[in-house]
């Protein structure tokens, strides 16, 4: 892609963004083999392993380049371009009335209430995916099709800088999964400092009561404007076998005298 854009003189006016979605389904969740290590939780949970993403932005238009950002990201060009502190410090991750769960991050503090799957997926799951640093070939990076373009344009960081950036971007929490202040979000709200403890090892709810109450009040503010979910039950009149196993706007062609009523057995 980079090579093609460069060949067509389009690269100088290009912004490339690569991002993950929410966390991966780890440890066999739904028969998958993802890893969010060392972060806690899996996809569809509100732990950092379920909500934190990783990505990069590249463009010759960026002024402050070759850096790792750990702050909340929003699509505001001035902040992306200059690396200025973001004005966004708050994320409501979710309020789920079905599971009875919610999570909110304000600054470095994160509130977690309730649990998906009755705490079945509230742990830390590998594999760590750590490889020998020597197996990562900086020469292969420079000699790739994108790397050669970067070398030609004098935009590729030095080997030393690439190594440093990789280390800065690596989340490391040590071996602290067996901590004194364990969190059981089914029994009470949990509070974490996700800047110093991104792996959510140490529940600070009992030590930071004022902060806990502030976040609970903020969560209540959000919840005061919530409306009940409008999800409907599956309509069995749309059963695939009734429509030749193809996607179809079946509601436009229902024949009530032939098809079963909604939610009756097929």
Question: Can you describe this structure?
Answer:
The chain has 266 residues and is α+β, with helices and mostly antiparallel strands. It folds into two domains: 1-131 and 170-225, Arylsulfatase, C-terminal domain, CATH 3.30.1120.10; 234-265, no CATH class. It is built from seven helices and six strands. It has helices at 2-7, 48-51, 77-82, 138-143, 145-152, 159-168, 209-223; strands spanning 16-19, 55-58, 90-96, 101-106, 109-113, 190-193. The strands form two sheets. Strands 3-4-5-6 form a four-stranded antiparallel sheet, with helices on one face. The protein has a two-stranded antiparallel sheet with strand order 1-2. The protein is globular and about 60 Å long. The N and C termini lie far apart (49 Å). The mean pLDDT is 88.
Q: Which labels suit this protein?
A:
266 residues; alpha+beta; Arylsulfatase, C-terminal domain; 2 domains; 4-stranded antiparallel β-sheet; two-stranded antiparallel sheet; 7 helices; 6 strands; 21% helix; globular
Helix content: 10-25%
User: Distance N terminus to C terminus?
Assistant: 49 Å
Number of helices: 7
Beta-strand residue fraction: 5-15%
Task: Calculate the mean pLDDT score and round it.
Answer: 88
Q: What is the strand arrangement across the widest sheet?
A: 3-4-5-6
Shape summary: globular
Please identify, by name, the CATH architecture of the largest domain: 2-Layer Sandwich
Largest beta-sheet characterization = 4 strands, antiparallel
Number of strands: 6
Q: Spans of 5+ residues with little confidence (pLDDT < 50)? A: none
* CATH topology annotation of the largest domain: Arylsulfatase, C-terminal domain
Rg over CA atoms: 24 Å
Number of domains: 2
Q: Assign the CATH class of the largest domain.
A: Alpha Beta
- The SS-based structural class is alpha+beta
SSE topology string = HEHEHEEEHHHEH
């Amino acid at each position: 892609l980079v090579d093609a854009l460069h060949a067509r003189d389009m690269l100088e006016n290009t912004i490339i963004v690569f991002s993950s979605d929410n966390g991966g389904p780890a440890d066999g969740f739904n028969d998958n083999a993802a890893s969010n290590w060392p972060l806690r939780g899996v996809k569809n949970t509100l732990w950092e392993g379920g909500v934190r993403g990783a990505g990069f932005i590249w463009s010759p238009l960026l002024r402050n380049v070759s850096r790792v950002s750990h702050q909340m990201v929003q699509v505001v060009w001035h902040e992306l371009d200059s690396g200025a502190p973001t004005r966004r410090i708050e994320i409501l991750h979710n309020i789920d009335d079905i599971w009875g769960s919610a999570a909110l991050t304000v600054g470095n503090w994160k509130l977690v209430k309730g649990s998906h799957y009755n705490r079945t997926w509230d742990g830390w799951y590998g594999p760590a995916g750590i490889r020998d640093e020597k197996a990562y070939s900086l020469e292969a990076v420079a000699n790739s099709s994108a790397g050669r373009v970067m070398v030609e344009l004098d935009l590729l960081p030095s080997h030393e800088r690439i190594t440093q950036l990789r280390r800065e971007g690596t989340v490391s929490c040590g071996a602290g999964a067996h901590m004194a202040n364990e969190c059981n979000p089914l029994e009470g709200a949990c509070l974490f400092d996700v800047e110093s403890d991104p792996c959510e090892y140490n529940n600070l709810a009992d030590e930071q009561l004022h902060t806990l109450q502030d976040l609970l009040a903020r969560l209540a503010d959000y919840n005061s404007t919530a409306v009940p979910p409008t999800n409907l039950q599956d309509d069995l009149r749309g059963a695939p076998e009734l429509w030749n196993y193809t996607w179809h706007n079946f509601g436009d062609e229902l024949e009530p005298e032939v098809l079963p009523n909604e939610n009756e057995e097929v």
